[in-house]
Amino acid sequence: MTKCFGKLYELRGVTYACSDTSNLREDFNNMIENIALVVNAVLQEGTTGAAPAIPAGAAAALAVGLAALGSGYAERGIGAAAVGAIAEDDSMFGRGLILTVLPETLVILALVVVFILG
C-alpha cells in the first residue's frame, strides 16, 4: 500500500482519494487542469435544454419548510429555558419572550424571500 494523506477509500482492491506524497505537485497540477476543462465544458454547453431539477414552487416550499424545521428545533431548547427562568424570576419574561421569538425571524425571512423571488 502506498503512503497516503487524507481519507483513504479502498474498494475491491482499487484505492481512491489517495495521493502519494512524492507526486503531490503533479497531482495538484492535474487537478487544476481538470477543473479548467470541466468549467470550459460547462460554459460551452450553456443552459439551453437544461431543465431545473425541481420546480420553483417546490424549491420555495422546501426552503420555507426547512427554515421552519430549524426554527422549531431551536425553539425547543430556548422555550424550555425561558419557562424555567420565568418560573424563578418574573422579571425575565421580556428576555424569555425575545429569545423565544428570535428563531421565528428565520421563517419570516424565508417567507419574505419567497415572495420577493416570485
From TrEMBL:
Residues 59-117 form the V-ATPase proteolipid subunit C-like domain. The keyword Lyase does not apply. GO terms for cellular component: proton-transporting two-sector ATPase complex, proton-transporting domain. It holds the Pfam family ATP-synt_C. Its main location: membrane. The chain crosses the membrane at residues 97-117. GO terms for molecular function: proton transmembrane transporter activity. Keywords: Membrane, Transmembrane, Transmembrane helix. It is a multi-pass membrane protein. It is found in: Membrane. This is V-ATPase proteolipid subunit C-like domain-containing protein. It comes from Haloarcula pellucida.
